[in-house]
Every structure is written in C-alpha cells, then in structure tokens.
Amino acid sequence: MSDASLANTTIRNIQIRQRDIDSLLSAQLIVAWAGEKGSSNDNASRRLGWWDTNLVDEGAEYDLKELLPNTWRWATLQSVRQAAKIHDLTIRAKDHDPDRLLTLFSLGFEIDEKVDERLLQFKQNSKAIEEVLPDVASMITSGWSVERFTSWVTKHGKESTTTVPAGRRLKGQPPEEIQAVVGRLVAGLAPLADIYPMPHFKQEGK
After folding, report:
1. What is the mean pLDDT of residues 76-82?
2. How far is CA 150 from the centre of its chain?
3. Distance of alpha carbon 132 from alpha carbon 26, whole angstroms
4. Which of 1, 125, 185, 191 is deepest in the core (most CB within 10 A)?
5. Radius of gyration of the chain (CA)
6. What is the total count of domains within the chain?
7. 3-class state of residue 80 by DSSP
C-alpha cells in the first residue's frame, strides 16, 4: 500500500493553528530522536533502538557541519524524523484498514503537509532550534536519559490501550484539537517497549 494511500485519513472538524503544528513537530522530533539506536560504542549515547539509525549524534553530525554549516542541525532532525515516519508507515501497513489509523507521524495529508512545511521553513530560515522549538533543544542538548524521556512521556497523562498487530490502539475517537491528540498519542508510548509500540487511534468508517 502506498504512502499516499495511507495518508488519506485525517481528523474530522479539526482546527489547525500554528502553535499546534509547532507542538506536533516538537513531539515528533523528540520521539524520533529518542527512538534512534544511538551509538553502539557509547553506552551513554544508546537510545531506544526503535529504528536502526544514529543520525543525531556528534560523530554522525561531523560531516554535515562541514557541508551545511547553517542548517546541519535541522538537516539531522529532518533525517531522523523521516526515519521514524518510514518505520511508522511500515507498522501501519499491518492493519487491515490502515487508512483509518492516526498516529503521531501520520495525522492526515493536510496536517502532515503543514508540519513538513513548518520544518522546511525553520530550516530555510536557519532558525535556532532553541528559539523556535525549545522543548526539542532542551531534550537533545541535555543528552540521552531514559528517565528524562519517560518523565516527558508520562507528563502527557496516562492512556488505556489495546494491543493489536499495528501497535497500541487508544480507546475512543481522537479529540478535535491537535494538542489533545498529540498529548494522548505521546502518553500512549508508556510503558516504553523494546519495539516501537505505535500508539494510534482508529477512526470510525466514513
């Protein structure tokens, strides 16, 4: 099933505001970073290993600093976000009706496009991450800590989920505000697992 086909679902009647897009992008980048394998040579740099990448790491970033002196930070975050999106897409495909699944990395074409555009805008304008997405900068620059990441996840609340082939299904239908949707999807990551649990909503048929 194509990526375009899987992106058709969207949250009905949702209001899309800029601060909501920034909140969603922040959550995506934090989860994408935490989900990396990290460095196998440094225990302190090992992360959750949900996707087999090590893109946001001092060693991996060295060449990008030379090639892209003004945008290398955004380039690394853009790359790890894409790795997370591909992994998310692969798991969604396990459901018999993946078009109806809403995840942190797939909330429908309109929302996903706005997030992509916002990230590209920050990158093209060479905005400092600390200035525009302080939560992302704080999490990454503090270094990896499973306790810190878990604390960030659990502060979004507690979710009751059902385990299905495509991950953890959240009960009920998604809220009609993006920040509420993001909060529930992030909360659904707890408890942390060895493989990406992909919290998701499944919308009722149209």
Report:
1. 93
2. 15
3. 10
4. 185
5. 16
6. 1
7. helix
